[in-house]
Amino acid sequence: MAYQVLARKYRPQRFADVAGQDHVTVTLMNALTQQRIAHGYIFSGHRGIGKTTIARILASALNCRNMIGSEVRPSAEPCEVCESCLEIRAGNAVDVIEIDAATNRGIDEIRELRDAARYRPARDKYKIYILDEAHQITDAAFNALLKTLEEPPDHIVFMMATTQPEDIPQTVRSRCQHFSFHAVKLVDILGELRGIAEREGVTADEAALALLAEAGDGSMRDALSIMDQAIASAPVEDGKPVLDASQIRELMGTVPNAVFEKVLEAVDANRSAEVITVANQLLDAGNSPAQLARQFVRYLRNCLIAKIAGIGSDGADADGSSAELLQISADEQRRAGRSAALFGEEELTRFLQVMLRTFDELGYRQEQRFHFELGLLKLVHLRRLLPIEEVLSQFPAAPGTVARNVPDTRVRTGVVGSAAVRPPATTAPMRSIGAVAGATDVKPAFSPFDGDRGRKRFDTPVAAAVANPVITSPVVLSPVVPMPVVKAPVVQAPVVPAPVVEEPEVRAAVAVALPETDAVVAEVPTPAAVVAPVADVPAARSAGAEVLQQVAVQALTDATGQDSAADAMGDAEWSVDGDSVQVQTQLSKTMLGVVVNPVAERIIREALRGQGDGGWKLTLLPGVATAEAPKAKRVARSGSAQAKAMEHPMVKQAQQLFSAEVLNVIDLSEGKQG
Predict the structure, then answer these.
(1) For strand 430-432 and strand 480-482, is the pairing parallel, antiparallel, or unpaired?
(2) 536, 501 in Cβ contact below 8 A?
(3) How do residues 574-585 score in pLDDT, each as one tens digit?
(4) Which of 153, 192, 151 lies closest to 175, judged by CA?
(5) How far apart are CA 276 and CA 253, in angstroms?
(6) Element (H, E) at 625
(7) Could you tell me which of 182, 133, 124, 202 has the C-alpha nearest to residue 157?
(8) Last residue of a domain, one of 471, 503, 531
(9) Is the separation of the CB atoms in 372 and 293 below 8 Å?
(10) CA distance linking residue 3 with residue 230, whole number of Å
(11) Domain boundary at 252, 275, 300, which?
(12) How far is it, in rounded angstroms, from Cα 39 to Cα 669?
């Protein structure tokens, strides 16, 4: 008799012999016992896990000539001794037709099948059609089969096996019972391989069998095929083939996972040279970069699962759900646990993502070796990266800034205009902010969003200035300042660091939030233009365009989605003529209607209506574009913020170091651009 491969020789003939599909076999046996036979079945799942095998066993059980419960057939299992069972097992049964749907997929073949289904079986109880790879049948052929599937004759049973059930039309699936098969677990495959090795007289250690089971990747047929090949190439001792793990790895073209463990140890030690050396040895040995990347991805996945499942470096806790997640041998579980102990979960996730991307790129890259080495080097570089929180925590806090939004123990500070100001000396008693706040430790905090918040031109609402005109601008406070305690409302101001610029001295009080509703006030020099009251009509008229511009920009800033309009209004030139307000923007006529849309214009008008007598007439003018020459640079007027900034030593030093050009200076105190 010709040699029969292991996958066919040890093909299950009973439901009990099928490994890893108990949820299917138990249901089918109960249906046979209760005589609840469906006219259509769909068996779907991974390759080589028993779909067609169970279809044949079910066909034998349906056409078995012995009754269930008889002496020969006590259960729903086929008796395996009657003529029908023997013919089905041999594959020459007349009434069990097995069709390869990959080649017989057209409408003509299905019409022939439908016509033949009308005739009763020649001898057995049922005429059974087993359609293998049923997802390859065309839609037209499935449509021709629909009526027969919906109302078949009593003697017809259809069984469709497929690896892609989603390709079968929903109209067909709804007319059949669908059984989804599971991938066979490593333990079940290992048990089957161990029993077959004993029956075949093969000497194999556990490491070799575990390697074969892992290579099966959930498919019993794949594991048996690799085992058949390994037995053929194995050395013979005392008339018995001997399976060795190293021989099986060489046969499959894989490398031991100890190599990848060594790579991860080099990554943890930040040794790029060692990583490249190991990769060079693997590639020079003839290993494919794509195969190495595939195997490394699997190893990283096992390490990540070991980290999540809490498997230690000694393999502890590698049972229960952890064993279900890691379908590898005990030795490999311990190896994965050792590698996982070197890294955090986030690092392993990043490693896996990098190697998955590298594996994808190897499919269409010319120089696969270089891309594989680059992927390994990226792992070393990822270890050198620091979390952004750790980086930001190393920066010192900005001068005069302390943590915000912490009740009772944190102080908010700010700036006057574009200049950092220190309080003048006074004869008042000195005390530190920490002393006022109590014994609570005040730690400076740094936020990467402070710079973004500081770009807003008008952070102090005008309403607050009207309610309390003395508090007009934020002030930077040094750690020790003269602060007589007064009862006053708490006002918090934004933090905007800027170079020191001297302004005309006008005394103004600024309140800083401190515990127990006390406010610490210090007199500091502030620009005179900011202190001017804007509550009544004459004062608003005297303040003129600057106050109206500040009101409009603040209203747009507070509105949702109007940041572009706020920037445009802040950059524009405002002028007041009687009760008319003209806004000369820098936008073209087309962009003016886009940036300052009707919603933004309505917000501006409503904001101006609350100022003065409310009779302002607003006119928005587009900028004049000159194509012949670029716009002339505005000359800084004497005493302006731009002129003072250009004279500041820090600005001059920056220009010398970086050859920098100061394009514009934003004066936050006056709400305009210098």
Answers:
(1) antiparallel
(2) no
(3) 888 877 888 888
(4) 151
(5) 20
(6) none
(7) 124
(8) 531
(9) yes
(10) 16
(11) 252
(12) 84
For helices 368-384 and 257-268, angle between their N-to-C axes, nearest 10 degrees:
40
Residues 6+ apart with CB under 8 A from 9: none
Q: Specify the pLDDT at position 18.
A: 93
Q: Return the structure tokens found at 521.
A: 């006030």
Give me the domain span that covers residue 347: 257-385
Dihedral-angle region of residue 80 (phi above 0 means left; psi in -120 to 50 means alpha; beta otherwise)? left
Residue 6, judged by CB atoms within 10 A of its CB (0-12, 13-18, 19+), counts as: buried
231 shares its domain with 198? yes
Residue 91 and residue 107 in one domain: yes
Inside any domain, residue 639: no
Residue with tokens 């709400």: 671
Q: Helix, strand or coil for residue 34? A: coil
Block means of pLDDT (10 residues each) for the chain, 674 residues, are: 85 92 94 93 93 94 92 91 91 90 88 88 91 92 88 91 92 92 90 92 89 89 92 89 88 88 93 94 90 93 90 66 75 89 92 94 86 93 81 70 44 37 40 38 45 44 41 41 44 46 40 39 38 40 71 84 82 83 84 84 83 74 60 54 79 79 67 45
Give CA–CA dist 475/483, Å, rounded. 13
Residues 87, 46: one domain? yes
Q: How many residues does the chain have?
A: 674
Residue identified by tokens 């069990």 is: 96
Say which residue the tokens 């004049």 belong to: 624
What are residue 482's DSSP bridge partners? 430
